[in-house]
Amino acid sequence: MATEEISTGPSELLSNLGSKEEEISKNIGQVESKVDDLTLDEPQGDDVARGSDDVARGAIRLAADSALLISFRLLSSTAPSAADSGRRQPPVARMAAKELLSLRICRKKKEPPQQSDPPSIPVVELFATGEFPEGEIQQYKDENSKEVFHKLCCSNLWRTTSEEKRELERLEKPIYNSVRQAAEVHRQVRKYIRQIVKPGILMTDLCETLENTVRKLISENGLQAGIAFPTGCSLNWVAAHWTPNTGDNTVLQYDDVMKLDFGTHIDGHIVDCAFTVAFNPMFNPLLEASREATNMGIKEAGIDVRLCDVGAAIQEVMESYEVEINGKVFQVKSIRNLNGHSIGRYQIHAGKSVPIVKGGEQTKMEEGEFYAIETFGSTGKGYVREDLECSHYMKNFDVGHIPLRLPRAKQLLATINKNFSTLAFCRRYLDRVGETKYLMALKNLCDAGIVQPYPPLCDVKGSYVSQFEHTILLRPTCKEVVSRGDDY
């Protein structure tokens, strides 16, 4: 089977390109259409091969006019010699068509999937490699001591280049990746929520929209992946631990200051992160105070850093702010009986507290620990008390077997163990899994010390509280703010 010889040389092609621009652009589409009809990877009979070669010859003629799409190497190929005419040769046209196909694929390279709006695609489908982006990296603070011995022995700068510490991080990579996945879900969800939250929205609708979005993006799977604790949406003088119970008709107002605090987890590795929403710009200094105080706490945190030193640095920044509300000036105060905390696996409060005022405990932070660095700025007394109807509950982490007399309490405990284990939950979550008429049984579990209630924490009525929070990881070589995003 003969092949068509191409007589057009590279130099002649180039000289004719200028006058054929319009024709070339039209031919490109025709070439792609013809190449699509070729079956290049399957064995072909004589008739099929002959038909394919006819198409390919047409493609190669067009390719000669569009030198941008086919290499000079192929264009300069010659017909087979007389000695080879007796056996079937791989047609130059088919080789050219393959080259064109590869070029077309390169030009139409599939772009990575993008998140939908509203977000509904699980983040695992957005990162094909399964590797999730790390958070903000900060180096451990250098004390800048003038004493050489102190710098060599007490500074954490050596960790950056230590091969031993790097190997420790490689061993912990699966855990790091899990918490980064949870953090990526948190970033995408809060980005969406910031777009839809408006005055007039029902608080129940806001929380359920947020939680359902988390469930989709994190691919909720029992205790392996899901929501880490109920969505806190505390308003104004309520600092923390408020979420609407079923039937609550609270509506978000223009002059409200809302703390939106929600968590995600993968295999019990929790990301605890919060921000404050205020529509009235007069509250901006209040929000800035807690945001910058949180950033200072993150900056001061590190391996072998005393918790009390972090608290002192936070308070100094927080109380340097003032806010004018309706003509009256208030100094922003750190709420002295609220704290950040260490985080364990399936344990939101793992034992260590990070104060936000000076004079706290002298316990030191340690390598490998996770911390929620959170600050609360208030225009009130700077002290909270328990008030209002309780919505948050959590099974005690270290509780052993405690005999229960009420069958209903036993049944409710089984539901809690199955769906939440030691992660926090709220009444709406019990409603969602099908529990009804459970208040007496829940009270029995609380009275027995199996479940701990967490009522809303409130400053004086009429005051305003803002909150910002990030989860940090004290890696062996550096400090990672895993929940950091473009927003805060």
Helix content: 25-40%
Number of helices: 15
**Rg, nearest Å:** 32 Å
Label the structural class. alpha+beta
Query: Could you tell me the number of beta strands?
Result: 18
What separation lies between the terminal Cα atoms?
69 Å
Largest sheet: 7 strands, antiparallel
Shape: globular
Strand fraction band? 15-25%
- If you average the pLDDT, what whole number results? 84
Query: Which parts are unreliable, with pLDDT below 50 for 5 consecutive residues or more?
Result: 1-11, 17-21, 35-53, 67-89, 144-154
Write structural notes for this entry.
Residues 1-11, 17-21, 35-53, 67-89 and 144-154 have low confidence and may be disordered. Strand 4 and strand 5 form a beta hairpin. This protein has 488 residues and is α+β, with helices and mostly antiparallel strands. The strands form five sheets. Strands 1, 8, 9, 10, 11, 17 and 18 form a seven-stranded antiparallel β-sheet that branches. A three-stranded antiparallel β-sheet has the order 2-4-5. A three-stranded antiparallel β-sheet has the order 3-16-12, with no helix packed on it. The chain has 15 helices and 18 strands. Helix 11 (284-300) packs antiparallel against helix 12 and helix 13 (407-419) packs across helix 15 (439-447). The chain starts with 9 loop residues before the first helix and ends in a 7-residue tail after the last strand. Its cofactor is Mn(2+); Fe(2+); Co(2+); Zn(2+). GO terms for molecular function: initiator methionyl aminopeptidase activity; metal ion binding; metalloaminopeptidase activity.
